[in-house]
Design brief:
Blueprint lengths: L1 E4 L14 H9 L3 E5 L10 H7 L2 E3 L2 H5 L2 E5 L6 H4 L7 E4 L7 H9 L3 E4 L14 H20 L7 E3 L2 E3 L3 E5 L3 H12 L3 E5 L4 H8 L3 E2 L20 H15 L4 E4 L14 H5 L6 E4 L16 E3 L5 E3 L9 H18 L1 E2 L4 E2 L6 H6 L2 E2 L2 E2 L11
Parallel strand pairs: 1-2, 1-4, 2-3, 4-5, 5-6, 9-10, 9-12, 10-11, 12-13, 13-15
Antiparallel strand pairs: 7-8, 14-15, 16-17, 18-19
Helix pairs in contact: 1-2, 6-7, 6-11
Length: 379
């Protein structure tokens, strides 16, 4: 079976869906690998390195996809490339399925069996395939590094003959994978760190990393028990907003990481809160792709507010650390393929009753099979 690795064409995308390391392991399964020329360039991987690992270098998308039974990607192929994917091929990547039913239908109409890895269930067996976690980890790290670069004062406390430079005060909004990595990174750099999350379970995780917990603790927050945060009531949001505004004004750098799966990001840092921050403060909004947690965020841009606060609203934070992000992402996809590989058939086998398959499989045999994307029956 032929496996194709496409060059990513989305603006600002630096990642690639396979590395020389994963190419070797996929070839060991009996696959032949075709990598589109230049696919790894933005991740510092040359065509020669892929060739040395055993891959064929295809000159363009058409020759790469010709005869492919499996296609690996980071983002969904553009319409021109999607039209070249052979019917019956298995497409694996972060396909942006949530809120994009039209794209899911395109996969079905094209006869592609599409697996959206962002929908992977949070179960123990799936941890090594969890693309959201691997990429969020790096996004949380990168957010602190870029926040430190934008901050015009020192990050850690420094004692010099001329006096002492105080440590930066960092406030992290959201203590999921990205938030916890942001806390750990800021602490390693010597900052005084506090963090908030609507899930009570996050309190101990925050404190275990040496940060202070800031949060509204009431009956509603106690019901937040899942891996993903649920949308909160207007009353809770009002209480949270008052506490957050007070906390933001006391901090130098705010890292925003709060997301609700499949929804627009909640606005947690209001315009008034930003206006109360000191000149030279920084807001880093990892949630910018979903609209942003900060009212001042302009998705895709770095801005400075009238009161001198820098707001980093870059999109696609994992792509800002492309080499490491590609390495982890490629391993996630490789693990998915190898976990469902049928040695006798020389092809992947995706049982319809498997929990992982049920979570990620959007389309099969020309039909939409994921229950979340099937047309709703009329009442």
């Amino acid at each position: 079976m032929r496996l194709a690795v496409l060059k990513e064409r989305a603006s600002g995308e630096t990642r690639v869906a396979a590395t020389p390391e994963t190419v070797k392991k996929l070839i060991a399964l009996g696959l032949s690998i075709a990598v589109e020329a230049g696919a790894g360039a933005m991740a510092s991987i040359s065509d020669a390195q892929y060739r040395e690992a055993g891959a064929e270098i295809a000159g363009d998308a058409a020759s790469c996809l010709a005869g492919a039974g499996i296609v690996l990607c980071v983002q969904p192929p553009a319409p021109a490339e999607l039209a070249m994917v052979p019917r019956g091929a298995l497409l694996i990547g972060t396909l942006g399925a949530m809120g994009n039913e039209a794209l899911v239908q395109q996969f079905a109409s094209a006869g592609i069996d599409a697996c959206a890895m962002e929908l992977l269930p949070r179960i123990t067996r799936a941890q090594s395939m969890d693309v959201l976690s691997s990429q969020a980890n790096l996004a949380g790290y990168r957010a602190v590094i870029e926040g430190a670069e934008a901050f015009p004062r020192g990050f850690s406390m420094m004692m010099t003959a001329a006096g002492t430079v105080p440590p930066a005060r960092v406030f992290v909004v959201g203590a999921g994978v990205a938030g916890l990595q942001a806390i750990a990174t800021a602490r390693r750099l010597g900052a005084i760190v506090s963090a908030t999350d609507v899930r009570p379970a996050a309190k101990e995780e925050i404190k275990s990393l040496g940060a202070s917990f800031i949060g509204v603790e009431d009956e509603e927050s106690s019901k937040q028990t899942g891996a993903y945060a649920r949308e909160m009531s207007a009353e809770f949001r009002a209480k949270q907003a008052a506490l957050i505004a007070e906390t933001v004004a006391k901090n130098d750098i705010v890292i925003c990481t709060a997301l609700v799966m499949g929804r627009k990001a909640p606005v947690i840092i209001t315009a008034e809160a930003v206006a109360a921050m000191r000149m030279g403060s920084v807001v880093v909004d990892i949630a910018a792709d979903a609209g942003g947690n900060c009212a001042a965020t302009v998705p895709g841009e770095r801005i400075v507010t009238p009161n001198g606060v820098t707001v980093l609203g870059y999109r696609n934070w994992p792509a800002r650390i492309g080499v490491a992000a590609s390495g982890l992402y490629a391993r996630n996809l490789m693990t998915f393929v190898t976990s469902f590989w049928d040695k006798e058939a020389g092809a992947p086998k995706l049982p319809a009753d498997d929990d992982i398959v049920k979570g990620v499989l959007l389309t099969r045999g020309g039909a939409v099979v994921h229950p979340n994307f099937q047309p709703q029956a009329a009442a």
